[in-house]
Design goal:
Blueprint (H helix, E strand, L loop, with lengths): L7 H7 L5 H48 L4 H7 L7 H13 L3 E6 L22 H4 L4 E7 L2 E11 L5 E10 H41 L4 H17 L3 E5 L5 E4 L1 H7 L10 H5 L3 H7 L7 E5 L2 E9 L5 E7 L1 H39 L3 H25 L3 H16 L3 E4 L12 H19 L6 E9 L2 E8 L31 H11 L3 E6 L5 E7 L9 H16 L1
Parallel strand pairs: 10-11
Antiparallel strand pairs: 1-4, 2-3, 3-4, 5-6, 5-9, 7-8, 8-9, 11-12, 12-14, 13-14
Helix pairs in contact: 2-6, 11-12, 11-13, 12-13, 13-14, 14-15
Length: 558
């Protein structure tokens, strides 16, 4: 009959347990037991050799004492080898006194003159006596007629020093083994105590490992690590992990891209890896809060930092650059809608005025009114276009002037404004001007005689922008703080947070090698000055300008 396969549950019971606690405990117990057995064996081996050496030295000492007995050599030379002879009596007396296994005296031919077994007296020895008869002292463990013994052999000399025989003494090896066996219980007691201490230490270590690993199996831990790596490198948010000392210990791919750093930042502090700034302050925990805004390069990031149980922290980074751009486009669209609404309101008032003049049959006054309205609007547009030759900036200022008029603010382009159409990055300058004008309009809104003045001028290839307002101004202690990401005194709009505009202005200026400063205007308000070196291209030579003008004229004529 075929046997059924072993059930999976039984196979698991026969193998290692799944829990880390049980596996670590079993492994450490096995290691402790192995160390105890190894240590006991390593101790027993030298103890056995030591006992053997002691037995052989004792046998040699008895042999030397026997060989030095007065008259023993003379008795061996003058009497025959008999069981009741003087040599046999002397040897037996020494054997009984010392507890030796045997004391054998032999002549130079190897014939025994004494032995424990009287039948062996007069016979040749069973082991080679050559070395002892040659004058050497010998210690050894050997097999003889009385079994395995620890032996000592010395030459026997007469009164003149001549070798006439030898003395061989044996210590029973069973006594050596008995001493060794008697020492084993003590060794085992020490080994058992060491094993018990090792088992306790293994249990304590296993409990600690169990708490730290939350009693997961090794396979579960490996799976979690693999899943963590896949998750960290697959998510579209930057993740930065810091240890308890504030050093970076992990960066995923998205964090490296957003922060512009590589794997070399691991092991360094945020200040060392990123340089001083708000981003490093947020990662290091010196700035606290949720959804903290920071600017890194040309990117606007949202950071959140969460402490971990080991004293470190994990920070997540989200890219809000596109969202900020869309938000600003929405602001621009709203500004355009406000401008159109203001123009519509103003146009409606003018049309009502014109309709009234026509109904009153004041035709000449109506013609004059239309001419004034068209002329004023054209004069404003022509004034801006004449001073600011870049079409993007000119359109921005015309639109902002309409919005300012709706809000009761006079937006004035300074008479000193002269900016040619040679901008390297017109969109960047539009962002700078738009942010500064918006901040100025917010600052003067609701104040009497509100006025904002914009001045744009070129100094060689350097563009200098100044925006002045008649608002309350900025206290000296806050003039550097206002450029910090996320700092604002106004309530944020619904679609995005405030505190980015002035920070972006500074970043855009610094990216072009310039800077932005804030001071007090003559009227007591704020005055922002932005210097942008290399913001303009080199002017074209006069012949090239004439050729371009002639080409333009021909195209218009054609």
């Amino acid at each position: 009959m075929a046997m059924s396969p072993t059930p999976p549950a039984r196979r698991r019971r026969l193998g290692l347990p799944r829990r880390v606690f049980s596996q670590v405990l079993l492994m450490q117990l096995a290691i402790a037991a192995g160390v105890a057995v190894l240590a006991t064996g390593l101790f027993l081996a030298p103890l056995s050799h030591q006992l053997d050496d002691q037995a052989m030295r004792r046998a040699l000492a008895i042999a030397e004492t026997t060989a030095q007995q007065p008259g023993l050599a003379h008795e061996m030379l003058t009497t025959p080898p008999t069981v009741d002879g003087p040599v046999q009596r002397t040897a037996e007396r020494i054997r009984r006194a010392t507890g030796a296994e045997y004391v054998v005296v032999l002549d130079w031919r190897g014939v025994r003159w004494s032995h424990t077994d009287p039948r062996q007296v007069g016979r040749h020895v069973s082991t080679d006596p050559t070395q002892a008869l040659a004058g050497r002292e010998i210690m050894q463990i050997d097999e003889g007629t009385l079994g395995r013994t620890a032996r000592g052999k010395v030459p026997l000399r007469d009164s003149h020093g001549a070798i006439v025989g030898a003395v061989s003494v044996g210590i029973p090896y069973d006594s050596v083994r008995a001493r060794l066996v008697s020492a084993i219980p003590g060794l085992l007691a020490y080994a058992g105590g060491a094993l018990a201490v090792g088992a306790l230490a293994a249990w304590l270590v296993s409990r600690r490992v169990q708490r730290q690993t939350r009693d997961l199996a090794f396979s579960d831990i490996a799976a979690l690590l693999a899943e963590r790596e896949a998750m960290l490198h697959g998510i579209r948010e930057g993740v930065v992990a810091l240890d308890r000392d504030g050093r970076i210990r992990l960066l995923n791919d998205e964090a490296q891209r957003l922060l512009g750093i590589g794997e070399e930042a691991v092991g360094r502090s945020p200040d060392e890896a990123l340089g001083a700034g708000r981003t490093a302050d947020v990662l290091a925990g010196r700035v606290t809060g949720a959804d903290l805004l920071t600017v890194r390069g040309h990117r606007v990031l949202v950071a959140n930092r969460m402490p971990t149980d080991d004293g470190g922290a994990v920070a997540t980074l989200r890219d809000r650059t596109e969202l900020e751009r869309l938000g600003r486009e929405l602001d621009s669209t709203r500004g355009l809608i406000d401008a159109l609404r203001a123009q519509d309101h103003e146009h409606a008032n003018r049309m009502h005025t014109l309709l009234g003049l026509l109904e009153l049959e004041m035709y000449e006054d109506a013609v004059e009114f239309v001419g004034e309205v068209v002329g004023d609007h054209r004069a404003t547009s022509e004034q801006v276009a004449e001073k600011v030759r870049d079409p993007l900036l000119a359109a921005l200022l015309v639109g902002k002037a309409t919005v300012a008029a709706e809000r009761g603010v006079a937006l004035w382009v300074s008479d000193a404004t002269r900016l040619p159409d040679r901008l390297v990055d017109p969109q960047g300058l539009v962002t700078v001007v738009g942010n500064l004008v918006d901040n100025a309009l917010d600052a003067v809104a609701g104040t009497p005689h509100a006025r904002v003045e914009v001045e744009l001028r070129a100094e060689g290839r350097t563009a200098v922008l100044t925006v002045r307002d008649t608002g309350p101004g900025i206290p000296p202690e806050q003039r550097e703080l206002i450029f910090t990401e996320g700092w604002s005194t106004k309530e944020p709009p619904a679609h995005r947070k405030r505190g980015i505009g002035l920070s972006l202005v500074r970043r855009l200026a610094e990216r072009q090698g310039g800077g932005v400063t804030v001071g007090q205007a003559d009227g007591g308000g704020a005055e922002f000055t932005v210097v942008l070196p290399e913001a303009l291209t080199e002017p074209e030579p006069a012949p090239a300008l004439a050729a371009r003008a002639e080409t333009a004229a021909e195209e218009e004529a054609g």
